[in-house]
Amino acid sequence: MMSMAAAWLVAATAAAFLPASGSHSATEDVKPSAQSFLQKAAEGQQAEIALGQLASERAGDQQVKQFGAQMIEDHRKASAEIQQLASKEGVALPTELTSNHKDKQEQFARLSGRDFDRAYLGYMLRDHRRDVKEFERHIKAIKNPQVQQWAEGTLPLLKQHLRQAQQIASSIGIDTAAR
């Protein structure tokens, strides 16, 4: 179980809250929130994997490379969990990075070494702070028990990722308070 990473950078659109089928019945009243949450979570998994791959290749510090590899591992696992849950719930998930995530990936791909480390860790700090807040909010709001259980189980890992990013940033001289 793991982080929603970059998922919360993308603002939710009204369409994301509509049932995938376009129809609306009483049984779907609780679905839009869970559906949107799963879709955003899947977007985040894809972004974390892509950015983690860049970190494992382009980072200058070994700790940052290892953190990137950990993000890949944790987010692949979470992605599989989300796909299984979405399948049970009848939710269609995105299969590609969003344009915002592609832009971020391209931006990071132009960096290497210490410049990459600073940009990547700054992004991970902001993103995981936002993810923790969003998960805490959604855990209370989601009516679907399976999605809520997954979110509750994932929140501790998000907090762990945030702590790891803070520790690595501090150890290589990056101010974590401003990020």
Would you kindly provide a brief summary of this structure?
By secondary structure, the chain is mostly helical.
Verbal overview:
This protein has 179 residues and is mostly helical. It has one domain (31-171): Ferritin, core subunit, four-helix bundle (Ferritin). The chain is 69% helix and 0% strand. It is built from five helices and no strands. The radius of gyration is 16 Å and the shape is globular. The two termini are 25 Å apart.
SSE arrangement:
Layout: H1 31-58, H2 62-89, H3 99-109, H4 113-141, H5 145-171
Helix pairs in contact: 1-2, 1-3, 1-4, 2-5, 4-5
Order of secondary-structure elements: HHHHH
Question: How helical, in percent, are the residues?
Answer: 55-70%
Beta-strand content: under 5%
Per CATH, which architecture?
A: Up-down Bundle
> In the CATH hierarchy, what is the class?
Mainly Alpha
Characteristic key phrases:
mainly alpha; 69% helix; globular; 5 helices; 179 residues; Ferritin
